[in-house]
């Protein structure tokens, strides 16, 4: 009886080892370089400084209390959205049968479209927005946690692991909150011209990141 129980225990161990190996990929101790790289990439995509003029224009008819509430909702909603993709991004890819390489190509093309739109039009154009929903749409999504940020979050998860992804999302959410807290001084300091310049410079970086994603994804299919 004892021998049978012992054998059952050993049969279960390979499953435990496989499970640990799978999670080990995501829970491995990250390097400072990986963390900084992920934070910078996500910061460039979210671009809170470049979007300051848009945030101001969307809330210009609100009282100070309404504006604070709107920005608080925006930070919470965008944080939750990105964190969901940070934790469940791997499972979502598996459910739809999407490989990281095809996701890199698709995400790179999407980021390139976003970059071109910012370079040509200077940002996003949103009309007919009600004050009640402006915090969630369009500030939280798609301006903060839009397709580009979601794509980048999943790619960080795939390339750097779960710990780096969660840390980068948390840090970027904190930065976004600070930008909202000091949004009036930042806007006054930058001015319309400065904000437009920052938005377009960030768009160039977005385009460069997009090309990198596309090239890395296509390399896999070229090898095959």
Give an overview of the whole structure:
The chain is mainly α and 224 residues long. The chain has one domain (32-223). 83% of the residues lie in helices and 0% in strands. The protein contains nine helices and no strands. It has helices at 2-27, 32-46, 52-58, 64-95, 100-121, 135-144, 147-160, 162-181, 183-223. The longest helix has 41 residues, at 183-223. The protein is globular, with a radius of gyration of 21 Å. Mean pLDDT is 78; it is low at 1-23.
Notable characteristics:
globular, 224 residues, mainly alpha, disordered N terminus
Q: Average pLDDT value?
A: 78
Cα-atom radius of gyration: 21 Å
* Helix fraction by DSSP (H/I, runs of at least 4): over 70%
The N- to C-terminal Cα distance equals 52 Å
Count of discrete structural domains? 1
Q: Helix-strand pattern, N to C? A: HHHHHHHHH
Q: Which class best fits the helix and strand makeup? A: mainly alpha
**How many DSSP E strands?**
0
By DSSP (H or I, 4+ residues per run), the number of helices equals: 9
The shape, in one word, is globular
Name the poorly predicted regions: 1-23
